[in-house]
Amino acid sequence: MENDNSTVVKEFILLGLTQSRDIQLLVFVLILIFYLIILPGNFLIILTIRSDPGLTAPLYFFLGNLAFLDASYSFIVAPRMLVDFVSEKKVISYRGCITQLFFLHFLGGGEGLLLVVMAFDRYIAICRPLHYSTVMNPRACYALLLALWLGGFIHSIIQVALILRLPFCGPNQLDNFFCDVPQVIKLACTDTFVVELLMVFNSGLMTLLCFLGLLSSYAVILCHIRGSTSEGKSRALSTCTTHVIIILLMFGPAIFIYTHPFRALPADKVVSFFHTVIFPLMNPMIYTLRNQEVKTSMKRLLSRHVVC
């Protein structure tokens, strides 16, 4: 993309999470250990749900997709971040930056919509149990899955389209460890006020509205559970509490990053680090540790392979 009397930016220099070599080494070791332990756990969740005929309910169908989305999401930032920790020059091409930005918002947007779908699933299961099998039939589940993937794609393509219209003629230093909208926009050599407003609306406002909608829906569900005397009350309460924890972990940092105007804040990098590297790997594991059926099935699967 050319700009008159200017040099076209072909690559961006990533300044990284920190300039301290000691902190970089510490974070490198922690991420590597965390990555090697938790990532296989996510794939184990997917394998367990796929292989156990008893885990065919929509809840487990969507949990398997959450594990897949989070595992895929973790490949966008973490591997390159680990490589950059041991590299002298942290450089990413313009095309590589746009690609990373696209998949970051494609999978992130899809996951946000998946949490909305999971909230809808719990609402029907707990508040309208007699209609559950009719509403959440396999065809409806696949239709919802297709819709959330399409929604994530539309959200991401809007971000990329707005970025591609901006001229970049230098400087080319991104004050972060990955490419994301707030940092990239700052490097454009033109007035970006309108673009920033569109970005805040597309990412920030939509994230905030989804977050408030999800909290409201779970408040309704929890009130319904409190007034219930059924045997599954404690199980439903545990499931919904887990969902709320995941919502806070995912939407909290996203709201912080995308709802304020694109100016640098001291906590930006730390919040982005947890949002893009740590929390995506933890989400499915949190679900699993609080779900007795998945834990039992996983133990059976592991014991079967150990015996073999």
Protein model, in words:
With 308 residues, the protein is mainly alpha-helical. The chain contains ten helices and three strands; from the N terminus they run βααβαααβααααα. A three-stranded mixed β-sheet has the order 2-1-3. Helix 3 (94-127) runs antiparallel to helix 8 (233-258). The termini are far apart. The model is unreliable at 1-7 (pLDDT under 50).
The chain-level structural class is mainly alpha
Helix count, per DSSP? 10
- Shape estimate: globular
**Rounded radius of gyration (Å):** 21 Å
Question: Quick one: how many beta strands?
Answer: 3
What average pLDDT do the residues reach? 85
Q: Which range best describes the helical content: under 10%, 10-25%, 25-40%, 40-55%, 55-70% or over 70%?
A: over 70%
What labels would you give this structure?
308 residues; mainly alpha; 3-stranded mixed sheet; 10 helices; 3 strands; G-protein coupled receptor; membrane; transmembrane helix
Question: How does the SSE layout of this entry go?
Answer:
Layout: E1 11-14, H1 21-51, H2 58-85, E2 91-93, H3 94-127, H4 132-135, H5 138-164, E3 173-174, H6 181-186, H7 193-226, H8 233-258, H9 268-289, H10 292-307
Parallel strand pairs: 1-3
Antiparallel strand pairs: 1-2
Helix pairs in contact: 1-2, 1-9, 1-10, 2-3, 2-9, 3-5, 3-7, 3-8, 5-7, 7-8, 8-9
Organism: Gulo gulo
Pfam family, one: 7tm_4
Domain G-protein coupled receptors family 1 profile: 41-287
